[in-house]
Design brief:
Elements lengths: L11 E4 L4 H14 L2 E10 L9 E5 L3 E4 L7 H14 L3 E6 L14 E8 L4 H11 L4 E6 L4 E5 L6 E3 L2 E6 L4 E5 L3 H12 L3 E5 L4 H4 L8 E5 L4 H12 L5 E4 L3 H13 L4 H4 L2 E2 L11 H19 L2
Parallel strand pairs: 1-4, 11-12, 11-13, 13-14, 14-15
Antiparallel strand pairs: 2-3, 2-6, 3-4, 5-6, 7-8, 7-10, 9-10
C-alpha cells in the first residue's frame, strides 16, 4: 500500500480531450511513470452529458484527462482516484441523484456511477492501442470483483455483461476525399480540426488511391463538379467498404448519375448507398458551409451506424 501523501495532492487537468485513444495513451504513459487509475462511467440514472464507457484517467501526481460528465465532477472523480491509488484498491462512486455528495449536483438532474480501477498491469491497454493502430475495433472488460482489465471482442455498445463492464473502442473516422478546389480543401481542414483522419486523394488517380485506404470506419466524399471526372472514382467507391458515401451535385445531377451507374450494371441497392445531394443541410453555396454540412452528415451517420 502506498503512503497517503497522494491524498493531499490537488488534481490538475493536464490534457483536455475525450478521445478514447488519447486517453489510453495517457494512461499508458502514466503507468510507466508511476501509479495511474482509470475512472469509467458505468451507470447513468436519468440524463447525462457523456455516454457509458466515458473515462477520466488520473496519475498519482494528480494529473488527469478525460470526461465522465460535462466537466462538473471530473475534479472530484480525480480526487477519488487519488485515494484509490493511495489505498491500492478499486472503488465505485455515485454522483448526482442518489449520491452522498450533496454539494456535487449534475446540471442534467440525473445521476451517474463511476468505477475507479487502479491499474496493476498495462497489457490490456497495450492490446487495445495496438488494435486501434491497425484500425480494428476492440473491447476493454473491467471486472470489479477481480479488479482487472482484459482486452476482449468489442460489444455493440458499452455496458454491463454479467458482472463485467465492457467498453467499446472503434477506430477514428477516416474521411476519404476526392475532388479539386476549395470545397475539398475546406472539408479536409475541418475534418482534421474535428479529430478525423483526413485523406485527400489525387483526383487524377483517385480510383487507384482508394485501394487499402477505405475501411468500415471510413466516409467517402466525392467533391467533383464533373460527372465524367467523378465516375472512375465512384465506381471504385461503390465496391469499397465505408459507412458513408456522399457526392456533390444537385438532385438533377444525381438523377443523371444514377442513370449512368445503372447503365454500368449497378443495382438500385448499390446506387442507394450514395447520399446526394451531399450533406446534412443545403443547398450550401460556399465552401465553409458545405464543409460543415458534409461533416455534420458524416458524424450523424457514424452515430447511427455504430451505436
Amino acid at each position: 500500500m502506498k503512503e497517503s501523501l497522494w491524498v493531499n495532492t490537488s488534481p490538475v487537468r493536464t490534457l483536455r480531450t475525450d478521445d478514447p485513444l488519447e486517453l489510453l495513451k495517457f494512461a499508458r504513459a502514466g503507468f510507466r511513470a508511476g501509479g495511474v487509475a482509470i475512472a469509467m462511467l458505468v451507470d447513468i440514472r436519468g440524463g447525462a452529458a457523456r455516454a457509458l464507457g466515458s473515462q477520466v484517467v488520473v496519475t498519482e501526481e494528480g494529473e488527469f484527462a478525460g470526461f465522465v460528465s460535462g466537466g462538473c465532477v471530473e475534479a472530484a472523480v480525480a480526487a477519488e482516484a487519488l485515494l484509490a491509488i493511495s489505498e491500492g484498491c478499486d472503488r465505485s462512486v455515485l454522483y448526482g441523484e442518489g449520491s452522498p455528495f450533496f454539494d456535487i449536483v449534475l446540471p442534467c438532474g440525473g445521476g451517474i456511477t463511476v468505477a475507479i480501477h487502479v491499474l496493476r498491469d498495462i497489457n490490456a491497454i497495450d492490446q487495445v492501442i495496438e488494435c486501434l493502430g491497425k484500425r480494428c475495433p476492440a473491447g476493454l472488460a473491467y471486472s470489479p470483483q477481480q479488479q482487472s482489465l482484459s482486452c476482449v471482442a468489442p460489444p455493440e455498445q458499452a455496458g454491463w455483461h454479467g458482472g463485467t463492464f465492457v467498453s467499446a473502442y472503434r477506430p477514428a473516422t477516416r474521411v476519404v476525399i476526392s475532388g479539386r478546389g476549395i470545397e475539398a480543401e475546406r472539408v479536409a481542414l475541418l475534418a482534421e480540426c474535428s479529430g478525423y483522419d483526413a485523406v485527400v486523394l489525387d483526383p487524377s488517380r483517385a480510383s487507384e488511391g482508394l485501394d487499402g485506404v477505405a475501411d468500415a470506419y471510413s466516409a467517402i466524399v466525392l467533391l467533383h463538379h464533373d460527372l465524367d471526372a467523378e465516375l472512375p472514382f465512384l465506381e471504385k467507391a461503390l465496391n469499397a467498404p465505408g459507412f458513408y458515401l456522399g457526392a456533390l451535385g444537385s438532385t438533377r445531377t444525381h438523377r443523371k448519375r444514377i442513370e449512368r451507374l445503372r447503365g454500368l450494371g449497378f443495382s438500385d441497392e448499390e446506387v442507394a448507398r450514395i447520399k446526394a445531394p451531399i450533406g446534412l443541410f443545403g443547398p450550401a453555396r460556399e465552401a465553409s458551409s458545405l464543409a460543415i454540412s458534409v461533416l455534420a452528415d458524416v458524424a450523424a451517420t457514424r452515430l447511427a451506424t455504430f451505436v
